[in-house]
Amino acid sequence: MTSTPPRTRALAARRPWQPPTELERRLRDASLADDEKGYLRILTETDLYLYQPKDEVDAGGPRHWRTMEDELGNWCVTVCTAGERPPRRAGWVAACRTLEDLAEHWPDARFSLYVNPGSPSGMRLRARAWDRRGWRKTAREAGVERPPAVLTKLTGPRSGPLAHALACGAHLSVTNGVLWNEIGDVYRDYERDVHQLRDNWGTGTPQEWQIQMNALLAARNSPAEPEFALRVRRELSQDAATLGAEAWRRACTAVLGELGLPAEAGDAVQDVIGRILRYEARFRADGLLAPDGYVRSAVGYDYGRAVGFARWGLSARLCPAEAAEGAILRAGGACREAYDSWEDFSAGYALGRVLRFDTEEFGEWYTAVLEPHRLLTADPESPWRTVGWEEA
After folding, report:
1. How many CA atoms lie within 13 A of 239 on its CB side?
2. Residue 372 to residue 52: CA distance in whole angstroms
3. pLDDT of 75 higher than 50
4. DSSP conformation class of 62
5. Could you tell me which residues come within 8 angstroms of residue 337 by beta carbon, excluding any fewer than 6 positions away?
6. Residue 390 pLDDT level (bands cut at 50, 70, 90)
7. CA 334 – CA 221 distance, rounded (Å)
8. Residue 241: pLDDT above 60?
């Protein structure tokens, strides 16, 4: 059973408090009801964060569990949920764990688990061997997979230019299971974000982060051929959906000839035109485009990723918060210039992604953008339904 002091819970409940997310509100309700089983079930739905010295994590050696003494003198390992993560502290970084991870690797049965200490959503849980067996059982019953969801920080930006810009990164936020409207201590997990930047982006220094960010904001990270072909189509017709494929192909050939580019460039553009047409047909069938819709531009893929890249850089300690926020705002402004609506932007983001990686297999590279699109356009609490496209 829980042994969080009733007086402490009562005082916390009376303090003015806005739940940072819906999850913390549910945890608060379970804590007030002394419903430990319900509290544990909610914990299986979320990541939990331990804070560790950055030098220790960077060194890659054994990790030491940090403990605190609660109001009754009990020694506890403290964790927090995403909405309750504290402001950044110099020298400390967040490590993401699940309830099952904690059960498997618990350091000492004498320690309790204290979730969100000092918050109305908090609860102290005993962590004896049989308690941890209960954690594992609850986690198994909940299942391994968490369904994709639009996760909103209720105390974060939800209107205005910053909210709009952060919502341009919402494809990735839904895919990665993180809050869409936060520029906080970490994106997902300090160590994971460091590896993401190093392994997938070749980025391990502030200078490398800035170079990649500049390329994303200039839409230079993706291949040039798709955007060239789409720009020619835009300039040829105000209603590109009615423009014949052959006219489009001839126009691209003519422009390339005027530029004096080699035949290989023409072959690459002709290939990409065919791919764009086939993807657009699939997008219409799947509701990513309207029945008569077409993709205006694919630059949204670079701009949308710029939002995530800024947040990864902040998490990995490669840039200050001011630089991350500035880059995110620039990405949002670039999206507003290139597109007319969230749906328009999403189709452009999706096309840029599949042209880069999918090779017309319509596999994970496609489904991982189609599912967030459907959630973000359908969920009434989604920023794409609550934040106006022209919001500034």
Report:
1. 2
2. 32
3. yes
4. -
5. none
6. confident
7. 15
8. no
Kindly report the average pLDDT of the chain as a whole number: 91
The mean pLDDT of 213-241, rounded to a whole number, is 88
**Cα gap 175→119, rounded to integer Å:** 29
Residue with tokens 């506890």: 76
Residues near 185 by Cβ (< 8 Å), separated by ≥ 6?
Answer: 85, 86, 87, 88, 93, 94, 315
What confidence score (pLDDT) does residue 1 get?
Answer: 41
Identify the residue whose tokens are 């319509």.
362
Tokens 């691209």 sit on residue: 252
First-to-final CA distance of the chain: 50
What are the pLDDT digits (tens) for 195-204? Answer: 999 999 999 9
The residue that leads in pLDDT, 2 or 149, is 149
- CB contact at 8 A, 212 and 221: yes
How far is the C-alpha of 136 from the C-alpha of 126, rounded, in Å?
Answer: 14
Q: Residue 113, Cα to own-chain centre: how many angstroms?
A: 27
352, 230 in Cβ contact below 8 A? no
Q: What are phi and psi of 4, to 5 degrees?
A: -60, 130
> Which CA distances in Å does 366 have to 145, 350, 355, 357?
19, 8, 10, 9
The contacts of residue 329 (CB under 8 Å, 6+ apart) are: 161, 162, 165
- pLDDT, tens digit, for every residue of 309-328? 999 999 999 999 999 999 99
Distance CA 47, CA 115 (A): 11
Q: Cβ(111)–Cβ(75) under 8 Å?
A: yes
Model confidence band, residue 63 (pLDDT cutoffs 50, 70, 90): confident
Residues found in the chain: 392
Among all chains, which residue has been given the structure tokens 């485009």? 289
Cβ contact 355:298 at 8 Å: yes
Q: Is 333 helix (H, G, I), strand (E, B) or coil?
A: helix
Place of tokens 């490669």: 318
Residue 77: phi, psi to the nearest 5? -90, 125
Report residue 335 as tokens: 């999206």
Mean pLDDT is lowest, of 8-17, 176-185, 195-204, 239-248, for 8-17
